[in-house]
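W.,

You were right to be curious about this one. When I first looked at the sequence I had no strong expectations either way, so I just let the prediction run and decided to look at it fresh. Below is the sequence, 332 residues in total, followed by the output.
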Amino acid sequence: MLASLSRAARRRLAALSAALLVLGGVLVWWLVPFGSPVPSGSVTFSTGVPSGVYQQYGALLKQALAEDLPEVSIQLTDSEGSQQNLARVATGKADFTVATADAVAQYQRERKPGFERLRGCARLYDDYVQLVVRQDSPVRTVRDLRGLRVGVGQDGSGVRLIADRVLAAAGLTPVRDVEAVAAGIDTMPGHLESGDLDAFFWSGGLPTAAVQTLSERFDVRLIPLDAALVDRLHDVGESTRHYRSATIPADAYAKAQDGQPVATLAVANLLVTTAEADPDLVEGFTRTVIRSRDEIGAQVHPAQLVDLRTAVYTEPLTVHEGARRYYRSVKP
C-alpha cells in the first residue's frame, strides 16, 4: 500500500509520524515524574572518640549511606564529643554530626559561633550516664568522689558537660573537690584498671562496648545517680531540662551490676546539620537513619532504639526542611 502512494503523500505521512513521536515524547515528559535530584558530592560526618558509640554508629551509618546515596562520598572524622561536634558543624568544618540535646541547648544559650544555623534531622537514642568504680572502691555516692581522681571526659565532650553538672549537683566543685582528669572512653577504662583513676564518668548508649569489655575482664561497679540528684540538676534550669531520670537495666553490664538495675539520668542524642544543607541530601540521610535501624542495631545496640514515631522531635533544634519532607512522606 505504501508503495502505491505518491512521493508527496509519503512525505506527508512521514512528517505526521514524526510529529506524533514528538507529541508522545512531550506527553511522557509531562505525565511521568522523574523524582527528586539524586544527591551527590562529598560531606564530612563528625563522630566521636575511638571505641565510643558515636564513632561506631557513624562507621555503620556510612556503610548504609553508601547503598542509599551512592553518589555521595562520606568522610568520617573523630572528635572529643558533642561540644566539639556542634562547633564543627556550626562553623562549616563538618556537615553532619551527632550531639546530645543538653549540649545543643548549651551551645545555643551561650550563642556560640553559628548557633543559629543548627538544625535537627532526627532524634536517635538516649545516652545514659554511667559512673564506674572498681568493685572494691569505698565510693557509694557521687559525694564520695571528693579528693579522688575522676575521669570526666575530654574537654569538648558531652560527657564533660554532664560530669561537671552531676558533681555540682552533688555539692562538689570539679576544679577544687576532685582531681578531674580529661580523658575519653578510649583510655578511661585502662586508667581505672591500672589504678591511675579512682572513677570515671561516661555518657553513652547501652551497653557501651568499652565499659562492657572492662566489666568482663575487671571487677567494677556502677554508682547510682538517684532521682533527687536529677531534681537538683533541673533546678539549674536552661539546658538541664533535657535530663530525665532513667534506669540502667540489670542486664546492661551483667558482671558489674550483680543482677540489679541502677538509677541514673539520660539525655537524647540528635542527628544535626545546618539550615543550608541540601534538602535532598538531608532527606536521604534521614531516610537511611530510619531504614538502617535494625541492621546497625545488630552491631551497635543503642541504634535499635531509633524510632520513626519520635525521630521528628529534635528539640531544642528546628527540624530541617529535608528531614521534615521525609517525615511527611511516611506519615500514615
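Here's what jumped out at me. The first strand starts at residue 41 and ends at 46. And, maybe more interesting for your project: The mean pLDDT is 90.

Coffee later to discuss?

I.
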